[in-house]
Amino acid sequence: MSPFSQIVFIALLSSLSLTRALYFHIGETEKKCFIEEIPDETMVIGKYRTQLWDKQTAAFLPSTPGLGMHVEVKDPDTKVVLSRQYGAEGRFTFTSHTPGEHQICLHSNSSKMALFTGGKLRVHLDIQVGEHTNNYPEIAAKDKLTELQLRVRQLLDQVEQIQKEQNYQRYREERFRMTSESTNQRVLWWSITQTVILLITGIWQMRHLKSFFEAKKLV
Amino acid sequence: MTVTIPLFRCFLLFFHVVVVFHLVSATELTFELADDDKQCFFEEIEKGEKFSLDYQVITGGNYDVDCSIVDPGAKVLYEESKKQYDHFSHTAEETGVYKVCFSNEFSTFSHKTVYFDLQTGEEPALIPEMHNRVSALTQMESSSVLIHEILKTISESQTHYRLREAIDRIRADEIHEHVMYWSVGETLILFVVSISQVVMLKSFFTDKKPLPGLSS
């Protein structure tokens, strides 16, 4: 087997079936969103597999062709990064260009199926972020690394991700500090403004009433 | 120099890859839990496997959520009410589907954002062939494994630090907004109250106009 086919073989195996992952149930038109808070230039790979509930056999069908899921990913500025339709089983990937909270939303497009099924969908989902997206068997085969070299490569990836996270942390603390300072300024100016308005209103009230009573010849 | 791989090793590789995928799963997700809502996640775990759950409430109300873990035999392994964060680990006693549920049913109007991390099994070997290693690890290799474990711990504590910071940051943003709304609102109320006070007081001292048709 040539190295190329070896790589293809390994890549195929590892990107294949989500044999075991967390799963949850969603309704037909229900939209499920997950939040990923990540530093910038971080890769995210999501794999999912859907199963449809069969009313007749009262069980989930092993696979359902024709079923599709719409995946939408929004960046921290609510700009859409990825918006695509995938089949019953899919793999989506994106790289963040701004640090912050990214939102990954999934919803099925099988509104026609609602009439025939119980309206329940089982979704197996696996989301990997950062250095967990690297496929080490593939890297070892491609670069012909020994075990130790591969291990060192993994350590380098981990350290790089830690460094990115620390940069992101510095950016977050700066934003937090700016928000706090802005709040402090707002509280200060509004307190002064409201006290001044209170005094002015009090003086105006007294003067207005005094002139009113003087006109009525009560004072 | 080409690297050839005989058919038998090919099968061994395939077998190990498949087995490896069955041995481990680590999922961390952050999702929104609407008020009066319950969300459950299911995971298939083999008997004898260790699994651990870490969860934390990031936004919403009093930052608390109900959590429960039920085993395939419908036995409740863990049940806590209104917790902000917790850690639970257990060795699975039977093979089957375990259910992890988060509930916000006690809340009437605050929706929560919950982070959880469910880890099952042991970490897989870097490449599948490392599983059937015969000789002991060299000092270099065992040092690098140690560094790997330490870096994993650093990464996990970074995640926890980020979550705690997110709680404070989101609250600070909310305060920032609320200060603006409340200040403007209070100023308006101030104007309305002072003007209406004067108008009402004046109306007490104004002679009532005689009604038409009534002789005074």
UniProtKB/TrEMBL annotation, chain A:
Bilayer topology annotation: Single-pass type I membrane protein
GOLD domain boundaries: 31-129
DNA-binding in keyword set: no
Main location: endoplasmic reticulum
InterPro entries: Emp24-like, GOLD_dom
Keyword Endoplasmic reticulum tagged: yes
Places the protein is found: Endoplasmic reticulum membrane; Membrane
The entry's keywords: Endoplasmic reticulum, Membrane, Signal, Transmembrane, Transmembrane helix
Signal peptide: 1-21
Ranges annotated as spanning the membrane: 187-206
UniProt record similarity statement: Belongs to the EMP24/GP25L family.
Name of this chain's protein: TMED4 protein
Species this protein is from: Polyodon spathula (North American paddlefish)
TrEMBL record, chain B:
InterPro entries reported in the protein's UniProt record: Emp24-like (IPR015720), GOLD_dom (IPR009038), GOLD_dom_sf (IPR036598)
Residue spans crossing the bilayer: 179-201
A Pfam family hit: EMP24_GP25L
Location in or out of the cell: Endoplasmic reticulum membrane; Endoplasmic reticulum-Golgi intermediate compartment membrane; Golgi apparatus, cis-Golgi network membrane; Membrane
Every GOLD domain range: 38-120
Top-level taxon in the UniProt lineage: Eukaryota
Keywords: Endoplasmic reticulum, Membrane, Signal, Transmembrane, Transmembrane helix
SMART domains reported in the protein's UniProt record: EMP24_GP25L
Recorded topology in the membrane: Single-pass type I membrane protein
Family: Belongs to the EMP24/GP25L family.
PANTHER family noted in UniProt: TRANSMEMBRANE EMP24 DOMAIN-CONTAINING PROTEIN
Protein name: TMED3 protein
Organism: Polyodon spathula (North American paddlefish)
Encoding gene, per UniProt annotation: Tmed3
